[in-house]
Amino acid sequence: MAPQFITVQNKGIFRSLPTFPEHDGKEYTAIVTGANGISGSYIVDLLAEAPERWNTIYAMSRRAPASTRSNVKNIAADFLADSPGELAESFKKHGVTA
After folding, report:
1. Euclidean distance between CA atoms 96 and 89, whole angstroms
2. What is the tens place of the pLDDT at every residue in 17-45?
3. In 2-33, which positions are buried (b, 16+ CB within 10 angstroms) versus exposed (e)?
4. In this structure, how many other beta carbons lie within 10 angstroms of the beta carbon of residue 75?
5. What span, in angstroms and rounded, lies between the C-alpha atoms of 33 and 15?
6. Distance of CA 34 to the CA centre of its chain
7. Chain-wide mean pLDDT for the chain?
8. What is the pTM of this model?
9. Taking the alpha carbons of 9, 11, 57, 85 in that order, is the dihedral positive or negative?
């Protein structure tokens, strides 16, 4: 079996991020909690740069993040204050399918 190599990149605060030079044609969904935080906002931006791979990105934070990217759905979700039932209803209302 031939060794497999993955190209990596450094971007912002992140080091050794994998790149996906050969897109497999699948469209994935991501859920990012804490999307207003330092790491969360960078992750949302990085995922949103590849809309052919990440069809939908659910960006969740206590206050809905303000991303204007077409493949990012901003959702206000407080995991500490809201009950699981309230969170489930909110996700259902926003069409979270992941």
Report:
1. 10
2. 766 666 666 778 889 999 988 888 888 88
3. eeeeeeeeeeeeeeeeeeeeeeeeeeeebbbe
4. 21
5. 20
6. 10
7. 82
8. 0.74
9. positive
